[in-house]
Design goal:
This protein has a domain of 155 residues. The chain has five helices and no strands. 90% of the residues lie in helices and 0% in strands. α1 packs antiparallel against α2, α2 packs antiparallel against α5 and α3 packs antiparallel against α4. The protein has 305 residues and is mainly alpha-helical.
Length: 305
């Protein structure tokens, strides 16, 4: 454009010089005028091209500014995503630490459950030992014995089965044992009645026989009555003691069941918390993976642009 302007000025100068000459022919004037007109048309065309190029330049600068703003927005979004990633990672780390603590607590409670179970088994063995050491022997006529060892052994054998049975089974067993003890008591009552019948038979002996054996019968009767009284007292004490033992065993079993139920509930609660934490950690992990994929896709798109 500058070159054409300079050419235009130079031609105008030449034109002025030529006009000053007196010996200029008219055909030369026409040629210069045509040439100047052509140059002016070229100048106008170049001016239009200049305006068009300036408009294109302005549009291009707008596009550059727009892309610059988009780039800055993407940088800001990336920064925000990185901050969110740091926060989410912090939450995941905290969740993992909570998981570790809960697993440690779970292990501790499991050890406590095992410890309480061992204590319960030890108490059970002590109770069984006490039951084993408890025996009642009722002597009648120096030949009749109320041997409680068999009863206690049966109680101990059946009590060992109670730990693996339901409460209904335990109640059935207690009812059965009570009926057995009632049967034993009835059998003992039959023995007492038999002895009393023998005494009555002795009382119905003839007078001569009574005179001959009066001293013996009196002594024997006194001994029998003393033995009966002692046997009744011991039998009642044995029954009371056995019932007391059964009640103690029932209470101990109930406490053990309650403790086991409580510990199982605590264990289940811990397992539920652990499951929730595992789900939350898996969710965070998926979010992180999705965010990383999105960031990688955005950065790849920016690089391509």
């Amino acid at each position: 454009v500058r070159f054409l302007e300079q050419q235009n000025k130079m031609l105008e100068t030449k034109w002025n010089l030529l006009q000053g000459q007196t010996a200029t022919r008219s055909n030369i004037d026409a040629m210069f005028e045509a040439y100047i007109a052509n140059l002016r048309r070229q100048l106008d065309s170049l001016g239009n091209d200049k305006m068009k190029l300036e408009a294109d330049l302005h549009n291009m600068q707008g596009l550059v500014e727009d892309f610059k703003n988009k780039y800055e927005d993407e940088i800001n979004r990336r920064t925000e995503c990185e901050n969110d990633f740091v926060l989410i990672k912090k939450d995941v780390d905290e969740a993992y630490m909570n998981k570790v603590e809960l697993e440690a607590k779970l292990e501790s409670l499991t050890d406590e459950i095992n410890f309480l179970r061992s204590i319960y088994e030890e108490e059970l063995r002590e109770l069984q030992s006490q039951i084993k050491d408890t025996s009642v022997i009722v002597e009648m006529d120096n030949s009749r014995n109320l041997d409680m060892d068999a009863i206690v052994a049966e109680v101990r054998a059946q009590y060992e089965d109670i730990a693996n049975r339901t409460r209904a089974e335990a109640e059935t067993w207690y009812k059965t044992k009570y009926e057995e003890m009632q049967t034993s008591a009835n059998r003992y009552g039959d023995d007492l009645r038999s002895t009393k019948t023998e005494i009555a038979d002795l009382n119905r002996m003839t007078d001569n026989d009574l005179i001959n054996v009066n001293k013996y019968i009196f002594t024997q009767r006194a001994n029998l009555e003393a033995q009966i009284a002692e046997a009744e007292e011991r039998g009642e004490l044995a029954v009371k003691d056995a019932k007391s033992r059964i009640r103690e065993l029932e209470e101990a079993l109930q406490r053990a069941k309650q403790d086991m139920a409580r510990q199982i509930r605590e264990y289940q609660d811990l397992m539920n918390v652990k499951l929730a934490l595992d789900i939350e950690i898996a969710t965070y992990r998926k979010l992180l993976e999705g965010e990383e994929d999105r960031l990688a896709t955005g950065i790849k798109a920016i690089n391509i642009s």
